[in-house]
Amino acid sequence: MTDFFPEQAFAKEMDGHDPLAVYRGKFHMPKNTKGEDNIYFVGNSLGLQPTRAMEFIWEEMEMWKTSAADGHHSGKRPWVLYETTLSEKTARVVGANPSEVVVMNSLTVNLHFLMVSFYRPTKDRYKILMEEKAFPSDQYAVASQLRLHGFDPEDGMIEVCPKEGRSTICNEDIIETIQRDGDSIALILFGGVNYYTGQCFDMEKIAEAGRAQGCVVGFDLAHASGNIPLQLHDWDVDFATWCNYKYINAGPGSVASAFVHEKHSNHDHLPRLAGWWGHNRETRFKMPRQFDPIPGAEGWQVSNINVLSAAPLLASLNLFDEVGMNALRKKSFMLTGYLEYLLDEASTDGFTIISPRNPEYRGCQLSLQFGGNAKDIHKRLNEKGIICDYRKPGVIRVAPVPFYNSFMDVFNFVKELKKLL
Questions:
Q1: 209, burial (CB in 10 Å: exposed 0-12, middle 13-18, buried 19+)
Q2: pLDDT tens figures, 31-65
Q3: What mean pLDDT comes out for the span 137-141?
Q4: If you write DSSP's letter for every residue of 304-366 in order, what string do you get?
């Protein structure tokens, strides 16, 4: 790890030697009233627009305009196969085989669809293991699935909590809980990276421990995909799903993605909520009454893809293909490490970093716990053109994204924060 220094000259030097600095220009950066770039640290909530996103959308608009229904079977990217144009690129981001991923629906919809198949409770094995303070949508989905099967969420949900006095969960406690309660756990469903603290969980070990106890293992990768390197196939994860509008920069409310391990590709005994678009392509238009799923993750589709939502995703995935997750992770270590260093140098008791200090167990987000003045500080930062977000109670999340944030962004943020404190 490079030694950091507090002077502005160091930040400029780091930017000057950054091989990914050119990619800042491949995204549209929000600007202030003077036309200057804002400092944007909210890629963990909504990624920036790739400069080519409009081009990809416009191509499909033109196809619709000039060819109408013929666009399903003609042009550079026929709509009837549009999801397949995304599969290989998506697979590379999450460490999967192309047949194991599909772009479809939205995150929580996918979560419900996948739990129909993979949450198969019995009288004795029905519990679902999660982290405490998982994203609320996951908690709602899990509770509703438990009720759907006739179980009380208060009894059926096991939450692993941080030890007293800690803000993050020990990975050892997760493994210990799986080993202790595994015979009653039907499903392990963790976030890959916790939205609130930015903690990255040891997914490989969680999956290994879950398999040893006969549990199904799934992950919500909303804050992990495009943020940290993943190896879903090699880790033998059963299923996963994620949105594409955070670190993957596909636009607000964009189409989501799902992963189903190839070991489940041809298991006809798995129940699923079937739909026409998941039917075998060879016979789909013969309109048979009997459902014959496409092998792999595409068999979980129910409807054709929203092409206009998927077009910006293709623009962003092309950039991921150019750079690769390892290069992004390398810069993320440096950029977030530099943010941590400058915050520590500020020597103020106005906040506490509640994200893991070990860079292996966090993504590019640092969460800062303030006292009662957090909301005011957040408001004043935004007024200065420093865009970060606030989460109750008293946390400001700061996410320097390696694709488009710079070391000078980090330097100027901490400089302004020190003034406010």
A1: buried
A2: 988 889 999 999 999 999 999 999 999 999 999 99
A3: 96
A4: ---HHHHHHHHHHHHHHHHH-HHHHHHHHHHHHHHHHHHHHHT--SSEEE-S-SSGGGB-S-E
pLDDT digits (tens, 9 = 90+) for 291-322: 999 999 999 999 999 999 999 999 999 999 99
> What distance in Å separates the CA atoms of residue 157 and residue 141, rounded to the nearest whole number?
11
Please name the residues in contact with 415: beta carbons below 8 A apart, sequence gap of 6 or more.
none
Structure-block tokens of residue 25: 């220009």
Q: Which H or E run includes 159?
A: strand 157-160
The answer to whether 364 touches 335, Cβ cutoff 8 Å, is: yes
Model confidence at 270, in pLDDT bands (50, 70, 90)? confident
Question: What pTM did the predictor assign?
Answer: 0.96
CA 142 to the chain's CA centroid: 18
> Phi and psi dihedrals of 94, rounded to 5?
-110, 5
User: Is 120 in a helix, a strand, or coil?
Assistant: coil
**Do the bridges between strand 351-353 and strand 366-370 make them parallel or antiparallel, or are there none, so unpaired?**
antiparallel
Which two tokens mark 191? Answer: 């976030």
Rounded to 5 degrees, φ, ψ at 54 are -65, -35
Overall fold of domain 57-321: Aspartate Aminotransferase; domain 2 (3.40.640)
Backbone φ and ψ for 31, nearest 5 degrees, come out as: -125, 160
pLDDT tens for 93-117 read: 999 999 999 999 999 999 999 999 9
- Check: CB of residue 411 under 8 Å from CB of residue 405: no
- CA 60/CA 34 separation, integer angstroms: 34
Write down the H helix ranges in 182-243.
203-212
State the Cα–Cα distance between residues 223 and 81, nearest whole angstrom: 28
* Residues pairing with 258 in the sheet: 102, 241
Domain residue ranges of the chain, discontinuous segments joined by +: 8-44+324-420, 57-321
Report how far residue 384's alpha carbon sits from residue 379's, in angstroms, rounded to the nearest whole number: 9
Which 3 state secondary structure label does DSSP give 50?
strand
* Cα dihedral value 33, 398, 333, 357, nearest 10: 160
Residue in 226, 223, 237 with CA at minimum distance from that of residue 107: 223
Q: Say which CATH superfamily domain 8-44+324-420 falls into.
A: Aspartate Aminotransferase, domain 1 (3.90.1150.10)
Q: What is the pLDDT of residue 1?
A: 52
Q: Say how many C-beta atoms besides its own lie within 10 A of residue 111's C-beta.
A: 26
